[in-house]
Amino acid sequence: MSDTIYQAILRLDGACVGVKTANDKLIGLDFLAMDMQQDCTNRLAEQVCQQLLRYSADPCFRFDVPMLLRGTPFQLRVWAELQCILPGQLLTYAALAGRVGSVARAVGQACGANPIPIIVPCHRVVSQSGLGGFNHEEDGEMLNIKQWLIGHEGRAVFSG
């Protein structure tokens, strides 16, 4: 990710997030190493960072930044459904698949391809047997971030 240009890098309690914007829209949030930091380079990045900090203080905070989600029609359907899951609620991949008329594996792939995690809350989707994956990873730092986000919102889920 060293060649990626971010308009801000923000450290939260459980993650460091790189903010990407284009044409006055948020187009991406990337999880980065915790030792990174960068001041905001535009007004939208500043707004995104302020809202992420508000979410960090209040897990029920509702984001309202302008976003541009780019994906397949199926991914866009899944991402729209993700935004209907309230903080503290968890939904299984299978249950979300039922909402979009698909199967759990396809929903998991769409969740993993989500370009704006946290704001489009793919972390609220879990497997029937535990945490599941996050950001196309099934263990390691990404699952630690997912666990932090779920715990921040008042729920504990343990993989197993």
UniProtKB/TrEMBL annotation:
Q: Name one Pfam family in it.
A: DNA_binding_1
Catalysed conversion reaction: a 6-O-methyl-2'-deoxyguanosine in DNA + L-cysteinyl-[protein] = S-methyl-L-cysteinyl-[protein] + a 2'-deoxyguanosine in DNA; a 4-O-methyl-thymidine in DNA + L-cysteinyl-[protein] = a thymidine in DNA + S-methyl-L-cysteinyl-[protein]
The superkingdom of the source organism is Bacteria
Q: EC number(s) per UniProt? A: 2.1.1.63
Top EC class for this record: transferase
Would I find DNA damage among this entry's keywords? yes
Cross-referenced InterPro entries: MethylDNA_cys_MeTrfase_AS, MethylDNA_cys_MeTrfase_DNA-bd, MethylDNA_cys_MeTrfase_DNAb, WH-like_DNA-bd_sf
Q: Which GO terms describe its molecular function?
A: methylated-DNA-[protein]-cysteine S-methyltransferase activity
One of the GO BP terms on file: DNA repair
Is Transferase one of the keywords UniProt gives this record? yes
Keyword terms, alphabetized? DNA damage, DNA repair, Methyltransferase, Transferase
> SUPFAM superfamilies annotated for this entry?
Methylated DNA-protein cysteine methyltransferase, C-terminal domain
Domain named Methylated-DNA-[protein]-cysteine S-methyltransferase DNA binding: which ranges?
73-154
The name under which this protein is listed is: Methylated-DNA-[protein]-cysteine S-methyltransferase
Q: Which organism is it from?
A: Chitinivorax tropicus
Q: What is the lineage of its organism?
A: Bacteria, Pseudomonadati, Pseudomonadota, Betaproteobacteria, Chitinivorax
